[in-house]
Amino acid sequence: MVITKTSIYCDKDFYLNPCESPFPRQAPPVIGCLISDKDGKSIVSFEVFKGAIKFFMNINDEFSQNQGEFQIDLIPMYVSAIELLSRELKIQGLPGIEINGTNIKLKILFKFEDFTITLFVNPNIDFTVIEDLVNAYLTNLIEEFNDEFNDMKCKSSNDFINFLERIGLCWLIDLNNDYIQLIKK
Question: Domain 30-184 class?
Answer without folding.
Answer: alpha beta
